[in-house]
Amino acid sequence: MRSPRVGIHPAWFVAAVAFVALVGAAGFRATPGVMLHPLHAEFGWPLAVISAAVSVNLLLYGLTAPFAAALMDRFGIRRVAAVALLLVASGSGLTVFMTESWQLLLCWGVLVGLGTGSMALSFVATVTGRWFVRRRGLVTGVLTAGGAAGQLIFLPILAVLVRDSGWRTASLTVTVAALLVVPLIWFFLRDHPRDLGTTAYGGSVEDQDQKPRGNAAVRAVRALGAASRTRAFWLLAGGFAICGATTNGLVGTHFIPAAHDHGMAETAAAGLLALIGVFDIVGTIASGWLTDRFDGRILLGAYYALRGLSLLVLPTLFAADSGPSMLVFILFYGLDWVATVPPTVALCRTYFGGDGAVVFGWVFAAHQVGAAIAATAAGLVRDRLGEYDLAWYVAGVLALGAAVLSLLLFRARRHDRVTPPADGLARPGRWSLRTT
């Protein structure tokens, strides 16, 4: 029986600290788009080479996630998050001394990739999985929106700094932002409700997970081995790979250079990308609310279909000024940017139970593989053809394919059955899958 609680539950304070940490870690996520042309102008490196550094970052950002989730289970959220932010600060700060392209690969790619990967969406899945039973989807949406909030805060600032003071000042700004969050994480983030003598929000003592023992890397690999034998994993991973290709990899990295190709100032293009972040916050929180109430498979299908249609019309909207049509694209695409995360996290938890956060880490790794491929491929398209149009059209078709993959989850296993929600509350339109 649940004991009555008075005042604000500690889970909300943990969520607030996690949100601020995600905003700080998101600083680097806004960096590549505003630095491609300055680095190209100063060092003469081809865009494909600079994009390759972004691809290494995106790849490690994803591949680190499942191991980071297992490490958080083993050693605690606080320690892993603090080390991750120190890696982000180191990688961003060291770029100011680089003179060769391999140093860009090391700093942008490896150090920052490992750091941001440890603060990726598996961090969100771990925090919400430990601290929330009720409102889990909503909090997942809010924390996911932290990345968009970081983009919203940092992108216009970084664009102005690059224009007025150079890219090195922008890099050092990201370093300082990451370092400022470390004390907040260390002193205020708590690993588990039992550390404060309480339970998860809306949960009971029976809902608390036991602390995993053994090697975290082994656990991550074993979770992948078990999940990879299911059709559901490959459908989720395939859809999320396309999600990464059509967001971080393509739009996040190449939207500003593409707009600049059509005569738009980089600061104006950065403002549009930041505006995507504004609508993304609204869309992701709304998606979390919907995930608590409706079937995640239907939500994913709708999100990917709308994204595909918007990307197919994007090449016709670029101009020197942002007209009404471009603003309409920003609205619809922004609402959809990472709205896919809450239902994907929920479906991983549904299909894979206690390993849901670790399996989501692997699904997110697929997201970043897709992003890495798209970042490099779009750079090659621009270098070879002199424009990005082909990249936008291919991305639109792929997003429509992801919608199909999401709907195929209805047939992932023939013996899937619909069961009531775990909290026992019947809600119209809400479905939950449990494999027997």
UniProtKB/TrEMBL annotation:
It comes from the Bacteria. Pfam families: MFS_1 (PF07690). Its main location: membrane. Residues 13-414 form the Major facilitator superfamily (MFS) profile domain. It is found in: Cell membrane. It is a multi-pass membrane protein. Gene3D superfamilies: MFS general substrate transporter like domains (1.20.1250.20). PROSITE patterns: MFS. The keyword Membrane applies. The chain crosses the membrane at residues 12-31, 43-68, 80-97, 103-125, 137-161, 167-189, 232-256, 268-290, 302-320, 326-347, 359-378, 390-410. GO terms for cellular component: plasma membrane. This is MFS family arabinose efflux permease. It comes from Catenuloplanes niger.
